[in-house]
Design goal:
There is one protein chain. By secondary structure, this protein is of the alpha+beta class. It has helices at 15-23, 25-31, 124-144, and strands at 5-11, 36-39, 46-53, 56-70, 74-81, 95-104, 107-115. A 7-stranded antiparallel beta sheet has the order 1-7-6-5-4-3-2. The radius of gyration is 15 Å and the shape is globular. It starts with a strand and ends in a 7-residue tail after the last helix. This is Activator of Hsp90 ATPase homologue 1/2-like C-terminal domain-containing protein. Belongs to the AHA1 family. Residues 14-137 form the Activator of Hsp90 ATPase homologue 1/2-like C-terminal domain. Pfam families: AHSA1.
Length: 151
Amino acid sequence: MMKDLKYVFYIGGTPEEVWQALISAEGTKQIFYGSVIRSTFRVGDLLEYVGPGADGDETVHVYGNVLDYVPNQVLRFTHFAGKSYTKDDNQEYESRISYLLEPVGACTKLTFIHDQWQEGDPHYENSDAAWWMILSNTKTLVETGKTLELG
């Protein structure tokens, strides 16, 4: 049984600042290795993380459909690995991503949940490792204006 990946970070910034880091092109390019989010953010519409990768500058790394969108509070979407990650395996594994932001004093509590995993999803272990780095980078970017040198 694959357990939910859940992380809670307290970030020295407002919900608006954390939201900008997670959603805006300036923020996502720094946190997600050059990728930006393309979406109308309307519930049911497509959401894609697009950036440099195996298929060139327009590689779709992750895509899904928007489930919930409340600016500065909630972004939830279905998650599929992009085509360049699934070339050898035609099965598409769906999971779900939730970003939940709430103010705590002068800080923001960011709760991140990657859940609804399907048994045998080959992207689980990578996700488990990568989210720590991505979320640590988010915290560092909001608090210092810089990202971590993760190499």
